[in-house]
Amino acid sequence: MTPSFTPLTAQPAWVDFEKIFLRTGGLKITHALVCALLGFFLAGTSMAPTIHNGVAATADVVSSLRP
Hints:
Layout: H1 13-22, H2 29-43, H3 48-64
């Protein structure tokens, strides 16, 4: 019986992020770190619900577009 999930082939999402943005030179590791820290900072502020609603609304608009 073959398992449906093999942990040896599974990759976290950050591996793809690293392959695309960091190895090609499009994003420096220091810039990625600053953006991540800013995101965590903003998540702890009173602006978090507003940002979440804005991102969700934008995602809804983008997902409703048909090419």
